[in-house]
């Protein structure tokens, strides 16, 4: 694997391109929700009765621009995924990689259907699932890019202490996914900022959640900001999102430093640990900026962008460490079996 033939190198670069296109799609979806354009095109799979691909460019204005562009990018990603599935089936010798390509195709089909049903059924919960699946799909395609790379063939059996490191990497990565789901839930509530200040919450450490305070907040939002009403639950959701973000920064910071200090790991993996720290710090700063900018669309979309990269980095590190630990386990099992045979 370290010295790949040309067709397999092309497969790797094609998978990289597909992963990059999925990231663009996620950012496009972030622009749609940030601009409140999720229902700008009210029908699906057509666009205002037109075939989606024949919709006149002159009508691409306002929220329609963001929603229709998102649909076109999604269609392109779907076609690219069909190609990825076909190439893995033809060029790959490893059955499990072929299965990854098939699962990616299934995921993008489900993703497209969820996006369409979000429009036709006017169901915000489907939009939440749509956003979460997009993140997992990005991780899946990135994994295919990883395992088709020359680096994958250089992974060596890990030491026993890697098991603990893997546990924490997987745990913190799961925390990041929960955080992205919380963020998607906030965006799909379409109520703007439930807590307008940061790092405080309505000037306090803990936000007011009683009925009188919430009513007062909603009166202010209606008269001064013309913003939709919020509930105590939405305020608490945003507060939990903030506290969880602090825990994630601490978690990735400590785990990333542990990866950087682990000299038995390859340089690329240790670089990934440092990159993970950089991404989560940037993500946290963008979250604060999102509040300070009153949820400016470009800042909120950048927040989504770095969130996806943070999750993907943790996912790939988890996959690499798991492969290293599993390889070590297989070697130990084989050695134990040989000893048993020798005793017999």
Describe this structure in words.
There is one protein chain. With 344 residues, the protein is mainly α. The protein has two domains: 1-154; 155-344, no CATH class. 73% of the residues lie in helices and 0% in strands. The protein has nine helices and no strands. It has helices at residues 6-34, 63-91, 95-120, 124-147, 162-187, 211-225, 232-261, 267-292, 297-343. Helix 1 (6-34) runs antiparallel to helix 4 and helix 8 (267-292) packs antiparallel against helix 9 (297-343). It is flat. The mean pLDDT is 89.
Task: Offer a concise description of the structure.
With 344 residues, the chain is mostly helical. It has helices at 6-34, 63-91, 95-120, 124-147, 162-187, 211-225, 232-261, 267-292, 297-343.
Q: Please, how many domains?
A: 2
Number of strands: 0
Specify the overall morphology.
flat
Whole-angstrom Rg: 23 Å
Mean pLDDT: 89
Instruction: Tell me the series of helices and strands, N- to C-terminal.
Output: HHHHHHHHH
Structural class designation: mainly alpha
Poorly predicted runs are none
The CA-CA distance between the termini, in Å, is 37 Å
Portion of residues in beta strands equals under 5%
Approximately how much helix is present in the residues?
A: over 70%
Number of helices: 9
Largest sheet geometry? none
